[in-house]
Amino acid sequence: MEPILAPESIDLIALAPVIVLSVFAMMVLVVDLFGARDKGLLAFISLIGLLMTTISAFAKNPIPAYSFNDSYTVDHLSLFFICIFTISSALAILLSVEYNKREGIRAGEYYALILFCTVGMILLASSSDMIMIFLGVEIVSICLYVLAGIQRDNHRSNEAALKYFLLGAFATGFLLYGMALVYGSTGNTNLFKIADFMQNPSAQSNPLLLMGLVLLIIGFGFKVASVPFHMWAPDVYQGAPTPVTAFMAVGPKAAAFAAFFRVFAETFAAMAPSWEILLSIIAVLSMFFGNLGAIMQTNIKRMLAFSSISHAGYILIAVIAKNSLGSASLLFYMLTYAFTIFGIFGVIIILGRKGEENLEIKCYSGLAYKHPILAISMAIFLLSLGGLPPFAGFIAKFYIFSAAIQEGFIALVIIAVLNSAISFYYYLKVIVYIYMEEPTAEFKVSMSPLTLFVVLVGVAATINIGIFPGSIIALASH
Amino acid sequence: MFLTFVTFLPLAGAAFLIFTPKENAAAIKQTALAVAAADFLLSLFLWTNFDNTTHKMQFELNVPWIEAWGINFHVGLDGISLLLYVMTTFLTMICVIASWDVKKYIREYMIAMLTLSTGMLGVFVALDLFMFYVFWEFQLIPMYIIIGVWGGPRRVYASIKFFLFTAVGSLLMLVAILWIYFHIQETTGVATADILYITEHLSAPLGTQKWLWMAFFLAFAIKVPMFPFHTWLPDAHVEAPTAGSVILAGVLLKMGTYGFLRFNLPFFPQVSYEFVPMVAWLSIIGIIYGALVSMVQIDLKKLVAYSSVSHLGFVMLGIFALNPYGIQGALIQNINHGISTGALFLLVGVIYDRRHTRLIEEFGGLSKVMPKYAVCFMIVALSSIGLPGMNGFVGEFLILLGIFQVNAIWAACATSGIILAACYILWMFQRVMFMEAKNPKNLALQDINIREAFTIVPLIILIFWIGLYPKPFMDTFDTSVTHLVAKVSPDNFGPSPRNRHDDQRGKHARLITPTEMASLHHKLQAPKKF
Amino acid sequence: MFESTVPLPHYLMLSATLFVIGIVGVLIRRNVIVVFMSIEIMLNAVNISLVAFDHYMNLSSGQIFSFMVMCVAAAEVSVGLAIIIALHRNKPTVNLDEFNLLKW
Amino acid sequence: MLLKLTCMVPLYPLIGSIINGFFGLRIGKKAVGLVACGSMALSFLTSVLIYAGYLLLPEGQHVYEQIVWTWFAVGDFSVDFGFQVDPLTLVMMFVVTGVGLIIHVYAVGYMREEFSYYRFFAYFNLFVSAMLLLVMGNNFLLMFIGWEGVGLCSYFLIGYYFEKKSACDAGTKAFIVNRVGDFAFLLAVMYIFNIFGSIDFTEVMHAAPEKLIYGGEAVTIITMLLFVGATGKSAQIPLYTWLPDAMEGPTPVSALIHAATMVTAGVYMVVRCNALFNLSPLTMTVVAFVGGGTAIMAATIGMTQFDIKRVLAYSTISQIGYMFMACGVGAYTAAIFHLVTHAFFKACLFLGSGSVIHGIHGEQDMRKMGGLKKYMPVTYWTFLISALTIAGIPPLSGFFSKDEVLYHSLMDGNIAFWGMGISAALLTAFYMFRLVFMTFHGESRVDPSVHPHESPKVMTTPLVVLAGLATVGGMLGVPLFHGWHILHNWLQPVLHFDLASALQHSEHMLHAAGRHAPSWTHLLEPKEHSGWIEFSLMVFSTIVAVIGVAGAYIFYIKQPHLPAKFTAGQWGFNLVQNKYYVDELYDDVVVKPTVKGSNLLWKECDTKAIDGAVNGTAKAIGWFSRQAQTLQSGFVRNYALFIVVGFVSLLLVMF
Q: Which three-class secondary structure string do you get for D378-432?
């Protein structure tokens, strides 16, 4: 047996973001332990940590670089994803400060958990080994289990955590089994080696491998909340504290997609015909069930949960397209999605009241005439989610569709566009309440500067990326 | 640059209004009017400086927008779009005046109106498919808001219906646009969505072209709206506020017909030619159906809305006559419909403001109470039914003349629309304006006031101007239409349509900047695997 | 290292059976703890496969993998139990079907 | 040059109309009347000057064209806003401006009591302007402006009393029925452009024999369409129903629009397009038959009506039928001749009836008149003269023109046409004198509270002038003596048609198309025109007219109980009195089904089917949405089950 880990293959510089962030996370824990009364300090440290992480991510040059026996990769995809993660974590932390104060979440681990979760996401997006992927998935998941249930005395939060935990663990079983089967049929856990192995046509028809692929799809499908593995998402999104929901909808999802993309579009690209159809079915189902589910919702968080399921469907198209446009569009989509989602949840937090109240859509009646800035921001976010120009969501969708069209998945794109037409309906419904109904009750808003800042960042990014997407596209499509 | 300025001026005005305190209604209205009027005057300046001896785009601006995709910010006007452009600024101005008495959220209203204006102008100037699509979808938002916030009792239903109907159609167009984009990239090696370039170089297999054509058709047919995609229109019109209806009828519907002229015909001449019978019959059904249904309406606005279906049927018929008479007729009829139907909506708005009802049975004998109003209404109504000497006739006659060259039976069927038009308009007019004023609520109605006169008189002047001396209008698009007709002429459909443009190849090469070329090369050479 | 007389498919069958048992356990049991344990069975079923593969193909990463799985499972257990306890504080039950606030 | 004034002729009334329309209320009634009549007088005088100018035209030039501007042009299609002056136009101009002026003067008196006096004159002047455009336009489309313009003014003026529902209905009906004709007219214009590449009268008429095959499909369709247009405007079968209803308008309107000018526009148009009609024997026959049939039918209805204006309206329809019959047999001169004389006497009759109505305060029912002779002598005498004229008593003008029509219908047509014509003449004489006797003679049946009185000078003077014209108008076309037929000679340049060369061209075209040309030699045989036959026909028709008058005398003066006896319980009489139920037929067959069908289209097709499909899609999505929601049961184990089911299904798809 050869040595498992050659010392020269360990490249800590490549691993810098993980290390930096872990250090900061532990620092948060320590500071909290030694009586930081002001949780804002923790948030501040976390933000600094995220900033340092982002900077350290670019320490490795040139890219692509590999570390730990090629099980950790620093490439364009992972760098971009790290940026998405740090941005979304930062936004989540910004959203949390005021929210936690209001909801009485005093736990200092909160920020540490977010940072650890981000570590997991970075690992997930950078891993090129199944073991690493598994670790990443689990780090992310375990943090999220806790985060979802961080409001210990809230029944909904508890229930969300339980559901998420049980189902998450259940799905992990599938993922793991899939990995085991893939490992068994290829003899490798390293994705590069598996990809090489796949060049051999006879290897592609191994039933064990195919079975493993199906199981992997389930595992990843669960993490990205795609139908029929999505059932947890609405409940968890609704029950979890709002900033956590926002965080969950963006960061971990993006990380899962990164892994999804790496495993399927890159590693198993050679046997695409056998999984394309499965992913297409899942994508179509996700779009349909996501949108159909969203139409009837009255709770905005739950509606956004369903909407995020349908978005998972759209993003899957990028995975299916599996070309360079596909990866670029995936990156672009996740970035714009992050800004939009955090913006929208920012508005929700501002309008929410203690105890997760005031989340019914009809509570927003007449918002436009009391708080025009919030109203227009909300409208912009919703329209962007719907994919209407000139907002970022449109460019993102356009990007993904173009990737699919380039590969000839025209039917898939047609289904997707029809679905976005359905999705307009429920996005518009919210706008109807905001703009076209008369105010029914007074709005008690907690217009905290940090939250407002997130909203404004979201608006600025959504519009700016929508109108001048050039630079981001250039970054994404390297 | 100037064109860009004119196009975005209303948006800038809207942005300015955001920072105006909402209590100061007068200032808001004056600012909005000033912006709209300035925009109109500037667009007139475009018109006077327009060189109508060439079909080429003018006032062009072509700068890279999304370099990675080869998408440019490319604007320009030719004869086909210029008049629609001017009409948009004109109607925006009229609509701002017409909305003077809006009480509810006047600032937001004006912002929406001005934003809408930029959206519509953008559609007409865009020379890049991507950009076109952006504007095409973008203008939905302010219109949706205008209908939904300032509309009638069923405004929410109407606004969502309007939005979804249009969105469904245009989303399929998006797929077609993407397909074309990649096809062009594949066949010519140039990543571009430039409309002019695509017009020159698109050479898809005929079967595919049919699908693409259908995708564009659906988007535009819904917008026009053609039978049987029209049912959003009556709802939207009925619920929209007066100015919304005017813009809807005057400009938004024209975007559909414009789309046919800018995309369906030049992109897919052969397919367009093959689909002529289908479009013609749909248009004819639309003409007759719209007129018949219009006849039995009990709501004034609905009546006018259905009459739009009928009128736009004429326009479509003219376009698909594929000869200069028909297309020029269609273009002038586009303008005419904007003016006449716009004016009709304004006039209906006048009595709606006073009586808060649009039911025909509520009125009667108005010409005794409001004689000036009655005269205006009469003139507009007559223009709408195409009385010779007024604008409607010129367009309708040319359209019929055009389609007569193609098929006399179609012409005969379509011509029957003018009988029905007389029926529904005159019957309505009689019930509203003539007979005894039985309803006591109508006895004390104020005649048209100065502000309302300011909105309607310019339209009436145009009605007669175009009716008696349409030359300045028709000269504007004469050359462009001739060029277009030459393109869709069936003589052109050789086995390989690309060959005939061999000599013109490279003419648009300048559209592709070096950076774009570089990024394209990079993309082509970049390894797929990591 | 000794030569095994048990062929690989047997291990795999065992692993699959255990996995299915785990699934069925999750599906039919109502007790949170039992469901949780069923999930652990599933994870361990996977471990069997991993180790078996390693052994028969003379590899090593599978074993490492299975250690990782065990570690993670342990972590999961701690978090999971913590959640269940937190839950139990608010609502003294371990019947899964009673956690039904969030639906539709 | 005097002819440069051509464009001024329609412009004066237009200006008058605009002045009256915009400032009428401010400047007062007197000024309004002055403006209206003044503009008409100017127009008339200008016409005279143009006539002079026309006479000064160099030898051989028969048409003067004045292009004011190009209306619109696309490619090779171009329409000018241009006027033309030729003999036919001049005749029509004089009729329109002359008779128009007289009626304007009359109307000044007749409408004096009206509040919206100015509105009336604005419309009235506008009408004249449009009518002049119609007769002076040098192409089909300009004619069409006038064509629709007169229809529009007619609509306004019929509905002048817009508070009366019947008036509004009548106006709308007139416009819509006219539009049916316009529809055909427009199609004809398009067809003409398709063939000739031009729609200028001069060009088309000049090129017609070269481009159209005699009796060919194209020319038949074109002329048929044109004729349908004419039936609409000129109230012929089957589109005549609007004219009787049009009597809802003020009487001067009936006189000018619905008797003298507008309704004869169809005749003018047919004559103007004689070069086309000459090429289609089938159309000519149809025209003659429709004309003759209308003449008889309208006359029969006229006999049974009691509303004084309606009788005159049917009489108008009947007389226009004569004109068409003349056109149909190729006697265009006769048609124009009758048009002119008819303008005089029918205007006089209408104005007379207006005077009567005015004198007895708005009563129109003849059963409530009688014995009015002594109260309104001027009206009576002028009315009588006109009635004699229309009945065809020599030497009044109607005698000459009607006889010319009858003579040609026999000589150029056949005995059937003549039969129709002569029977219509008999009926005409009868019902006109029935009218005269019932109104002016016998016992007074006037409501005792009403004191009949003669109309003021301003109204009676026009009557006298028109009666005079009706008396001497026959001089325009004295028969029998060669060269005395002024009108015939005058119109020669317009009506000249070389059939022989047209046939030759047709033959060439047929041969070129590889088809066989039929033998047309019989067409070229010179027609016999015998003064002797003409004279005997004159005598015969005079006798017929006298019989008609005498019959009326017996029925309504001598033995007034007879009519009731004859008509009581007669189904035939009922049928005729109810105008053959044509209105009801149209109502049941066309109007009601259309409205019903439209309602059905709207409610069933639009709302239920199309919009139903749209909303149905939305509803279906909503339904699916609710179904999908129920899956989200909230039970964790259910969710796990879904994962497993998904797993199994994916496996099934995979393998």
A: HHHHHHHHHHHHHHCCCCCHHHHHHHHHHHHHHHHHCHHHHHHHHHHHHHHHHHH
Taking each helix axis as running N to C, give the angle between helix A76-103 and helix A324-351, from 0 to 180 degrees, rounded to the nearest 10: 10
A chain contacts of residue C86, beta-carbon cutoff 8 Å: 149, 152, 158, 161
Q: Which of B74, B84, B14 is nearest to B43 (CA)?
A: B84
Cβ–Cβ under 8 Å, residues B54 and B479: yes
- Determine contact: B381 vs chain D, CB below 8 A: no
| CB-based contact D235:D330 (threshold 8 Å) | no
Nearest residue, CB atoms, C26 vs list D632, D634, D637: D637
Q: What φ, ψ does residue A59 adopt, rounded to 5°?
A: -65, -35
CA distance A388 to B174: 12
- Would the CB atoms of C101 and D629 count as touching at under 8 Å? no
Hey, what are D549's tokens? 């008058």
Query: B482-508, pLDDT tens digit by residue?
Result: 999 888 887 777 544 444 444 333 333
The CA distance from C33 to A155, in Å, is 19
- Element at A380 (helix H, strand E): helix A372-386
Q: Are B372 and B448 in contact (CB under 8 A)?
A: yes
Residues whose CB falls within 8 Å of the CB of residue B260, separated by 6 or more in sequence, listed in order: B216, B217, B220, B316, B319, B320
Among candidate residues D279, D270, D339, the one with its CA nearest the CA of residue D500: D279
Cα separation, D45 vs A129, whole angstroms: 106
Helices (H) and strands (E) in chain A, counts: 19, 2
Mean pLDDT of D22-29: 84
> Average pLDDT for residues B287-292, to the nearest whole number?
92
User: Quick one: tokens of D526?
Assistant: 């010179």
**What is the C-alpha separation between A329 and A316, in angstroms, rounded?**
11
Burial D415-435 (b: 16+ CB within 10 A, else e): eebbebbbbbbbbbbbbbbbb
Is A5 in contact with A62 (CB distance < 8 Å)?
no
The per-residue pLDDT for range D36-81, each reduced to its tens digit, is 999 999 999 999 999 998 888 888 788 888 888 888 888 888 888 8
Contact list, A266 vs chain B (CB under 8 Å): 529-530
pLDDT at D382 over 60: yes
Contact: C27, D634; criterion CB under 8 Å: no
State the Cα angle at A281 between A276 and A287, rounded to 5°: 120
pLDDT-derived band of residue A470, with 50, 70 and 90 as boundaries? Answer: confident
pLDDT of residue A62: 79
Give the separation between CA B285 and CA B413, rounded to whole angstroms: 9
For B290, B328, D198, D211, the CA distances from B401, given in Å and listed in that order, are: 21, 11, 12, 19
List chain B domain ranges. 1-180+227-266, 275-530
Among candidates A174, A198, A178, A199, which has minimal Cα distance to A186?
A198
Report the Cα D526 to chain-centroid distance in Å. 34
Say if residues B345 and B94 touch (Cβ distance below 8 Å): no
Q: Touching check for B98 and chain D: CB below 8 Å?
A: no
Please compute Rg for chain D using Cα positions: 30
Please give the Cα distance from A188 to C61 (Å, whole number).
8
Q: What is the DSSP string of A226-248?
A: -TTS-THHHHHHHHS-HHHHHHH
Residues near D397 by beta carbon (within 8 Å), at least 6 away in sequence = D341, D344, D345, D389, D469, D470, D471, D472, D473, D474, D475, D476
Instruction: Give the percent of chain D with pLDDT over 70.
Output: 98
D653/A292 touch (CB, cutoff 8 Å), yes or no? no
Cβ neighbours of B141 (radius 10 Å): 23
C-alpha separations of D407 from D53, D420, D537 in Å: 35, 12, 7
How confident is the prediction for chain C on average, in pLDDT?
87
